[in-house]
Design brief:
alpha/beta; Aspartate Aminotransferase, domain 2; Aspartate Aminotransferase, domain 1; 12 strands
Length: 367
Amino acid sequence: MNVPLLDLRAQFASIEREVRAAMDRVLETQRFIGGPEVEGLEHEIAAYCGTRHAIGVSSGTDAILGALMALGIGPGDEVIVPPFTFFATAGCVVRLGGKPVFADIEPRTFNIDPSKVERAVTKRTRAIMPVHLFGQCADVDPIVEIGERHGVPVIEDAAQALGATYKGRRAGSLARLGCFSFFPSKNLGAFGDGGIVTTDDDALAAKLRVLRDHGQKPKYHYRFVGGNFRLDALQAAVLRVKLTHLEAWHEARRRNAGRYDSLLAGSAVTTPWIAPHNRTIYNQYVIRHPDRDGLRQHLSDRGVGTEVYYPVSLHLQECFADLGHRDGDFPESERAQREVLALPVYPELTEEQIGHVAECIAQYARR
């Protein structure tokens, strides 16, 4: 049986007519940059997240970069981030001349540990950026409290968590700014790159709208050195269609995750732990196994697609060697990089496919 890690063709087949009609709207208007589709998506995402503003941008990476720029992060500034995350979280800090300061993760959620954040604050700290990894929100309230005590804003890297909730509040509304990705593999994925920034801060929202368009306002008059971070209308039109299905897709992922939880209970793998105050969206379903690479090969041999998010923590990446970190500095992140494995969890999975994946894992455990 073939079980791919993700099957976007199955999703597209279910919404093809709606998507083609939305794209035709854009083709008829020939308005490809900005316009009513982008504005419509921004209003809809803001309402979905429970924020005053949402600013469409060209990618999740540019959402982070734009948020940091709006806060004035620059040379010598420190931003606290987890080492176990996608590259953009720390990479955007370095692009602006800042320094990523790593704080280790909690072993059960893979999210940044608030107690480690407190220890990482210095007089140069200018922002704290927790990541809502794999679709589960980080423990944000104590991090925001740390930020308030030190006068430091908090940015949510919520790239994998659109629709996730923390204590009844949606990701993107929990701190000063929220950054989302619409990369095709996300629960809400575009037909290419895209992203959005959410905030309740009127001044930051206004600045982000200028920064994403080269810093110009009015046209050809430049208030800031910005960038070309605009979200195009075709992507916005597709995303508006998909947004109407998002909650149903979330529920299907949670149902599939529950099946895995039951079938893998008592096995040699550790299944995801979700904090009682969280509702996760299972952007990934990530298990742990001490012989992860052997298990992954076993699954591949039997037609099961998997992925490792992430095989090398950021503090050990070559491009960050000048930060002076080494093996052992962040033990939970390093243990996670050796043990994590993402299984297929997309909404269109069948019970037979889930059963096949679970049985293959059980076979490996018995062997």
